[in-house]
Amino acid sequence: MQKPTKLANGSLTSDAIQSYHENGFLTPIQAISSERATHWRTKLEQMENTWLDNGLPKPLNSYKRVNAQCVIPLAHEIGADPAILDVVEGVLGPDILMYAVEFFIKKPHTRHVVSMHQDLTYWGLGAIDGLVTAWIALSPATRASG
Description:
Helices cover 39% and strands 3% of the residues. By secondary structure, the protein is mainly alpha-helical.
């Protein structure tokens, strides 16, 4: 397991920023507390249960995966969280546009595999600079949990 990326007062250190520019990624970073992640996960699960209770045949994730921040207050709350944005600012600077918040839900025992890929390919943006993806785990991200 990789050593966590250290933050200084909630922001990336100059060493972390340099590492990002050399390697193209930073991981893991604890930008939010485990309590905050648990709070968001609880809200997400409540929302999913309410959604399914409305009689729709598929889970919420299949209807609103991309740009959820436009219609789901929880998605906007997560994407606009100051602690997360402080980390992103270390790479992009203070002028940040939230392009999309996506709930990528991997249920236990799924056979679904996500191989290595470039998000830009799926977003149709082409090769551009000044874009980062922040993956926020709302449950433990371990080898055992996939």
